[in-house]
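User: Can you fold this complex?
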Amino acid sequence: MKNWLGCMVLAGGLVATAGAQVVVTKGAGQKTGLDLSAFQASPTAGAALFRKTLEADLVRSGWFSLTPAGRGELVVQGQCAESGGSINAGIYVLHATTRQSYLGKNYPAPVADARRLAHRAADDIIFAVTGRKGLNSGRLVVVGNRTKKKELYLCDADGGGLVQLTQDRSISLAPRWSPDGKTIVYTSYLRGFPDVYSIDVGSGSRRVVASFPGLNTGGAVSPGGREMALILSRTGNPELFVKGGGGLTKLTATTQAAEASPAWSPDGSRIVYVSDQAGTPQLYMISRSGGRAQRLTSRGSENVAPDWGANGWIAFSSKLGGRYQICIMNPDTQEIRQLTADGTDYEDPAWAPDGRHIACARTAGYRSSIYLVDTMGDPPIPLLDASGDWFSPSWAP
Amino acid sequence: MQMRGWVVVAVAGLLVVSSGCKKRPKPGQAGVDNVGGVVGSDLYGEGADMLGDRFAGGEEVRGQFTAVYFDYDSSQIKDSERSKIDAVASHLQSAGTANLVVEGNADERGSNEYNLALGERRALAIRAYLVGLGIDGNRITTKSLGEEQPVVMGHDEESWSQNRRGEFVLIQ
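Assistant: Here's the predicted assembly.
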């Protein structure tokens, strides 16, 4: 699967590239050899952490393989020094034979920010070499149960920097970042019933978004930031609504079915969601202004938890052979690619900001952790595997 | 504590929004002959069955009634479960002022968010059945817990069958 999937991804333009950049382009499954041996870090904790993080980030990006000294197509030179509570990294990226320079930049920061600094440097290298946005500076919100209650947590793209965002001692579910990256919309039982809240990540302040009788969930802010998709049962049955412009508009009227999990198209004109109107939960697509819904999936006994990426592809979880697997679909051609296939369950996919990777919840042996799945054929790797169970990732934009 | 302000505002806003558009279900719309699912309705259509407001207070009594069980991925009320709901209806008819929260639950399998909607449909199906037995719909509110509150922690059909359920909480 690895090769043709990669071909499809590159040919289909799944990962956007910068315009007039001279980039290193590789085919399916091929990686650029990167020689990091000339990059020196002083033997101090902060500098060593910077180097270790940078190396891991470059490998995680999927674009590079590390080579022995003198064997790489690209060479990273420079050093990371530490003094007086600060680190300073000078990074130079060159082509090994042509000596073409891709990047030459200084990265200063307090020692405490060594990891974040390395994430930024790694994404700069990735962009300079491939013309593509990296995922390492990205941030996720996830649901965790390590306190015995489901709360929201934030972490970095490598699972580091884990912090607890809510302390509600209730049930917090279904978090999704707003497009401005400042707030997270989620479902909580703070007042005893499932309501939709918005939490300001900077200040921690919250407001109620939807608190109607019955079920309030599925809050997803539109790409333009002015509207929100919601699942509400206030009219007697769970239905898909859009809130905004001074009112609520009901988009579905399936009185014998349940709707769930809305996600917006990148241009905000359409919404993909789950409905069981045909007997099992499947993906449907509807115009933001309503009208007739189009069924998107039929393969698999269940197709759920869609996330519509900026690259135009919908990631979702498909029940195939009794297990949930991550698939992606081009909604216009309805072309589907299956990305996972081992004997575990992969659910709740969320596109990473690099447009290449997907974070999801992987359950094995009744334990759930966050994994990173690659659309170009690299095997899934753990992203957040701290104690407790982890669910429902969403990447900051 | 800092939330108290907006909670009051939100509740006040809700009362404004939902009073006035509340409508009683028509007799015969739901009942013992029509338990195939929820009697939902179109917001803009005839006979809109808007849910009543949540209850402001009262003492919660849990465990007085037997849980109602459902088949996998179904919100149909089974014949075997009807007498349990009949008992709740009898109580509500005799306890004229008590209100009821119907809690809908799902087993652990499947999408977390879909299970929230499925749990709500189970609670709404029980509510529709009670309304069909003559109970005022404004005395019954629904609450879906999705797969979040299993009563049995196992990972087999024996456990799942006990987690796919509706529960009753009296508010008196």
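Chain A touches chain B through 52 residues (CB under 8 Å). Residues 21 and 146 of chain A are 45 Å apart (CA to CA).
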